[in-house]
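Blackboard transcription, Thursday session:
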Amino acid sequence: MLKYTKWFWKYYRGHKRALTLLLTVSFVSSALLVIQPLLLKNVFDLLQSGTTKPTHLPYINEALHQLTADRIINYVILMIAVGFAGFIVRVLLIGHRAYLNIRFEWEFRQAAFDGATTKGPDFFNRFHTGDLVTRMTDDVAEKLSWFACSGIFRFYEALTLILFSLLMMLSIHPRLTLWTAGPLPVLVFVYMRSSRLLDRRFDFLQKKISAVNNTMEACFSGVRVIKAYNREGDQRKRFAKVADNRQEAEILAVKSHTVVESLWMYIWQLGIIIVLLAGGYYVINGSLSIGEFIAFDSLVIFMIYPMFDVGNFLVQGLRAAVSIKRLTELEDHPPMVDEHEGGRPAGEKIKGRVAFERVSFHFPGQEREILDDVSFVAEPGERVALVGKVGSGKSWAARLIPRLVNPTSGRLTLDAVDLREYDTHDLRRIIGYVPQEPILFSDTIESNIRFNREDIDDAIMNWAIEVSQLREELAAFPKGLQTRIGVRGVSISGGQKQRLALARALVGKPKILILDDCTSALDAKTEAALWDRLHQVMPDLTAFIVSHRPATLEKADKIIVLDEGKIVESGTHIELILSEGLYCRLYHRIMLEEAVGAA
Amino acid sequence: MNSAYYEEDKHDGISSRKAFRRLLPLLAPHKKWLAICLLLLAGSKALYLIGPDLVRHAIDVDISGSDYRGLLGTVGLYVLIQAMFLVINYIFRVRMEIIGQNVMTGLRKGLFDHILNMSVSFFDRNPTGRLMARVESDTEALRMMFTNTVVNMIGAVLLVVGMFIWMFLISPELAAVVAVFIPVILVLLYVYHRLTTPKWLIIRKRMADVTANLTELLQGMQIIQIFGRVRDARRRLYDVNRRKYQVEVRAEIYVVAMFSFVFFLETTIIALVLYVGARWAGVGTLTIGTLVMFISYIRMFFEPVHLAAEQLAVVQKAVAGAKRIFGLLDTHEIVPEPVRPVMWPRLEDGIAFENVSFSYDGDGNYAVKDATFTIPKGKRYALAGVTGGGKTTVINLLLRYYDIQKGRIMVDGIDIRDIRKEDLRAKFGLVLQDIFLFPGNVATNVSLSANGFDRQKVIDACRTVAADRFIERMPDQYETELSERGGNLSRGERQLLSFARALVFDPEILILDEATSSVDPETERLIQEGMATLMKGRTSIVIAHRLSTILNVDRILVIREGKIIERGTHAELLKQDGYYSKLLKLQFTPANGMGVKKAC
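(Written on the board underneath:)
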């Protein structure tokens, strides 16, 4: 319980004024509400006094009429005035509640997302995107944000209303209050227990709905098999059966629901009945006036009606707790790399000598070493190829360089200085990274290439586009650089995406370029041309390429062969072929794949 | 990454009015019960209205007359009326639900049947999730509208009409005071509707934007971090969030104003009624009880007003759902049956492809190009090639999942387009890379029947492929429920089950897409034996991934980029030392497939 309050308090802190307003205004609103029955009491008592008692029915007497009517007018005007004041207050109250609900939704979501931006790849492995999106939308919007404000403050309002009603009732007639208020909480309790029965019926219904969905899912996914074996008729029968079962369960649930709902309506009526019986008795024996009796009638409603909010609060509270847990699960996952400002600048003076010094890496809590005691050096201007089977650790070696993750032991150095000492922002500025799966965003091509970096002039843009072989492609697009891609834009081919990603990396004029197995979209000739160009324009560029293309490997200055996280061989292509080891076998396989046209 | 993108609502097909008109015939068979329900509803509302009248009697007659016994009588009657109301309400609600459920279940079954008739290309283009949403959530939205909104609306109208009739009978002047406000409220509701409905649509869109942007940013987080664009990503989400927030706040202002004002209106009307009652009511006709009754009615009157405002969203969802449902029902993507079907009782000679060309999207991108070959009866043929080369397509075409653009596919000289699909497919048995499992137990899955199958056949088939060993170790043996997607079975066991399935159906022609995953040697042996058993003496087409399978067939067709480039027996192809040889080295070298020993 305390944990959850603390979680909310984080956000409440920023809205202290609004919350204080809510607290006071709820109070005032409830007070104003309770005044109405009081005014009613006065009106009816006046009416009563203006009646004659010769017959049983209280008629309004002509003679006393005028005087009474004048006084009643005052009360009526007061009623409308209080009503109006109540209106203003309610607008403030509900308005602020609604405003805070929406505001909290925003804040919860932003906080969750901001938190996610500090997490590393293991976080995104553990929580799939779909799951994250659900937590940041469904949990936040549907369940939490309403509860955070309305849920809690309606509960508070309900309490104040119940309190004021009780006080008012006590001030009028304590014994009647006892009769009225006494049994009601018990009944509300009964209502809530019967709601549990409802839950069971609903769980049962959920299972039946799942069965329908499972049948559908299996059928539609396996439609080829069904058609092949002519089993459509059988599937229809199965579906009919689960659909019928579901129908039955739904009707059962509605029956329970209606019964519980009737119980609720009955509690309401019971309140009125008690007032009629007990209040009627007291009016007859003279200790209660008609006006007071009528006031009680209204007050009973003010007491019953908020109980619903109380019950709701408890139910919604449970659901909200679940959602908070789901969000704190995300928050509690340790962030990967600490982004610290300050640290050594890394700018023009950097030469680009990258060294791996006994680097090991594994995920926290896992034993398997993804990289194991890896050491090698890449001199400025060298092209280093990282080769190995799937799972050999080559992609992770590449990811260590821009400090996407930190090595668990050993260190990486740039120009003989530990990477961790550099300003992370600067470091990433001078490194260009092209991932395996090109990730682009729904935006213009130009925005994707620039990726929001300042000081990229047109000359560099043109150069990057040229080198990545995008020039012709752009000419084919209707709006060239301004063409939108992504969801509301044109769809581009995988190869074009890769070239875009390449341009994006180049446009930052990196000192170090990392290509993670991404040139498959370029044919061999184009790729060779790419390297020549790069070498021409940026002779000091240190390049790391994870690749299995023969052309790339043959031209690399150094090849590092990884197997299960360890370096098993290294050297130039010729050297490695001659040594007839793992690389040789890998290489021949690659050649075969090319010949056969396998991807 | 500056401008986040924003979604647009797509409008499918038919208009709202047409959608509703098509719903009516679904209700027709329940006419009688609907009429009864209407009466029940009217009755329950009438009972509801009696309550305040009884209170009036209690005040005016019993209490003023100090008649406690009379009061007990009146209260007793009140309790009775309330009980009757609850009973009728219960009957009514349950009956309405039954009608609603009947209609919806009928609709769901109809949708399911319709979908199942569609061709495989329809399933290619419509992800399972979307189809499920049509059958499940869209119908549910319709049902909610029907059993909740429509019913509540009609009930509200009945209540208000009944209320006013009674009020006018008792005191026309007071009733007139209240009646004056009806047009005010109607106008209010209308204005509220016009102001807020477009906002709800926009809010939904903005929510979709949030989701879409969140998805994209989270998927691309690695890149965002590497390029140091985290602050921009946060900013972008901030903007998307803010846009939603702005519309929502504005919409909420209307909601808050509306509800608070309605509340104020209620108080005002009560006050006015008191005023009129005190000042102008005719002498001798107005009583305190009457005034109290009127106040109750006024409060009762405002219940549906609150409801009306909230129900609009439900209606919108339902309308959108109805449009999509009927749009789906109007889609007819079927592989056509022949007008004058030719009978084909059994395979006599063989299968033939004649210059067959096929493209999935119908325009130029050919998956199979000018393929010509024959498979004689009783022979086993293998298709070899790399992924995406066209092997699976050949199988798809044989089963007539799609119709080809050029050429002819023939069985015993008959074009398959001239044979009824059911007739054609009955001769084939399909074994895919992974067995497709359905909710049920082992037996129903192997036989692909919920019931009415030959259990002995299932057991025999399982025994033949040595699947019986692991089945009998299961808690309920053949009646063991298989968990979703067969989670409690290993890959090898699943393979054996799919063999058993094919055996149960005992097809004349076997189509087998071999699984590529590696299993332990013992299971491997069982699988190889199982396959040999399946293929023995049976016309077979196999997409082979195992050397043993390749060696076991009569002939091999080598496919590359949709064309058959080599054909012959294994020995013949090896001798040619062409594409096939390379393929062999690449795909069929055992263990970690690390290449040939030749040069290393």
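Lecturer's comment: The longest helix of chain A spans residues 62-116.
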